Amino acid sequence: MFKKKIISISSFIFAYFTIFSIINVVYGENVYSDSFSEELTMKNLSETEILAVFNFTQTMDLKEDNKITSYYQLFPRAIGQIVEKYHVKEFHITFTRGSWNSYQWGLNTLPVPVGVEFYAYFDANYDTNENWSGLANAISGVFCASVNYIDRSKSAKPNYSFKPSGSYNEEEKIEMRYGSLSHEGVCTENLTPWIKLLPCQSKMGIAGLLNNYKLFDTNYYSMMAHLIPVCIDSECKHKQLQLTQIISTVFDNKRISKNGNKSWSTESLFGKKISSYCPVSTNSKIKIELNDSDGENNYRLIQSPSRFESSTKDTKYAVYDLISKRYDNLNIGVNIINEKNIQPIQKNIGLEVYRSQSGFAEEYGGFVVTMKNNNIDKDLSITYFDIIPWFVNIYFNSFKIQNTKVKDYQNDQYVNEFYYEPAIEHVNPTILEMKMIIPRDSTTTIEFDFDKKHLLYADYPPDCARGFDVGSAVVTVHNITLGEGYLYPTEDFIRIYTEPIVIILPAPDFSMPYNVITYSCTIIALFFGSMYNAYTRRYIPLVVEKEEKEKGKNETQKIPPPKDSISATEKEEKDKDK
């Protein structure tokens, strides 16, 4: 019954788009085709950790003037309208929870910082600052995130670190803005609207494996969306909009497996099996990356693949094509026979980057950035980019760049470009950007000091005792060759992000106003009550009778009243006389 329901849904979707295209042709309208593809790649990062990367790509043809068409078939209308309204050429947004362990997992082919990273390119013929603010608010609404907090005081315009990933002709002028929120949390409220941008959402296809409970019970989770223009012809006069949605997550099989077995499958990782592919997808496949040197004596595939594809000399993929070969309740994975011989290939470029905080107390501090080139026969050309918030006052005269091999390192031979923009309070942050060369087998250190500002009480967040966040620094490594697994394999650079830093600023005692108000109100209440009681009370003389025994007789002695007072008996006699 379930299979019949899937077939009926597929037939309905196919018929809908067929009729829609025929109507456009009959009425003389240009038919703008949309396409969709889905792919899942899995591999072992270590003996117990498995990487799963979901990749969903949608494309939409643009008009001859590179404007967005009003006909939406597969491409999400919400994204298209935002791009058109704010004159966006391309944008990139990532949501990440956890840190990538490069020592055990190797180089991250999809490098992202902790929290939220957001940058975009705009048409330079319009007001970029206004469009940047509008885009941040719109994207915040689409993904249910706090991207709208990336205002001008948290954003910058990099000069050397970032290059556009899209295709542009010489006539187009673009301008970029960059911002990040390292403390932004990632939750299911961000994943749900992200899934709704897919044509089949999570009802059919590979996206049906996206289980909220399983995805957020992992060591690392990253969710991203990249929108770029792609040229169709050689002159780049006709373009497409390409929206790529990626989820990269690392499962800990040691925690998932009940019997301690290192084998894994889609059912054990996601709690689901694959029922069918998305009917509107032109490409739907699942790939398992295998180390060719391991051999079949160390592992067994649970399900026979459609084919094998060779990637590099030591790597091959077991490919499961969901369109060419129909699978019913597909459960794929790897049964590991000899755990000790499983040695995943770890890619690395030989560069280690650290950033730490120096100083003491809550008044002075400093940053120390260490970049170590482990390559014995290769110099690395890099760009260092850092955004430091305005509440940290940088001492530029304390800036030092040193190298363990080169004494006079601060010359044009090694530091090619240097850009520094001081901060303006509540307006823009401090921007530091350098193009430099790190000699082979050496360590370069960047140091500078800063003051921690005393802020106005309104500038402190509710959790000021936790500290203030400084986002990750970006190190871009140039002139390297990327392979399969990267988002854009044709690019010749890759980024490395440092860990974010939390700075403790001097903060007032926010409990003091409460204590003062409580103490003052108590004093006023006591004083006011006593004075009010004293001024409003009416005093009436009180006659007291005292019995005394004298000489065995009972006598009653009356206390004489005051001279100005009158007894009750005398008052009655006077009233009778009157």
Please describe what this structure looks like.
This protein is α+β, with helices and mostly antiparallel strands. It is built from 10 helices and 27 strands. The protein has helices at 2-26, 77-85, 102-105, 128-143, 188-196, 212-215, 253-256, 266-270, 512-536, 568-577; strands at residues 34-44, 49-61, 88-97, 115-123, 155-156, 174-181, 220-231, 239-252, 264-265, 283-291, 299-301, 307-310, 315-321, 333-336, 351-358, 364-373, 380-388, 392-403, 415-421, 430-438, 442-452, 468-470, 474-478, 493-497, 501-503, 545-550, 553-558. It has an 11-stranded mixed sheet with strand order 5-6-4-3-7-8-2-1-10-13-12. The chain has a 5-stranded antiparallel sheet with strand order 19-20-17-23-24, with no helix packed on it. A 4-stranded antiparallel sheet has the order 15-16-21-18, with no helix packed on it. The radius of gyration is 36 Å and the shape is globular. InterPro entries: PIG-T (IPR007245).
Summarize the structure.
The chain is 19% helix and 35% strand.
Compute the average pLDDT.
84
Report the β-strand fraction as a percent range. 25-35%
Q: What is the subunit organization of this protein?
A: single chain
> Which structural class best describes the helix and strand composition?
alpha+beta
Q: The biggest beta sheet, please?
A: 11 strands, mixed
The low-confidence parts are 1-7, 20-29
Report the total helices: 10
Q: What level of helicity do the residues show?
A: 10-25%
Number of domains: 2
Q: How far apart are the termini?
A: 113 Å
Biased composition (Basic and acidic residues): 546-556, 569-578
Protein name: Gpi16 subunit, GPI transamidase component
GO biological process, one term: attachment of GPI anchor to protein
Transmembrane segments: 7-27, 516-535
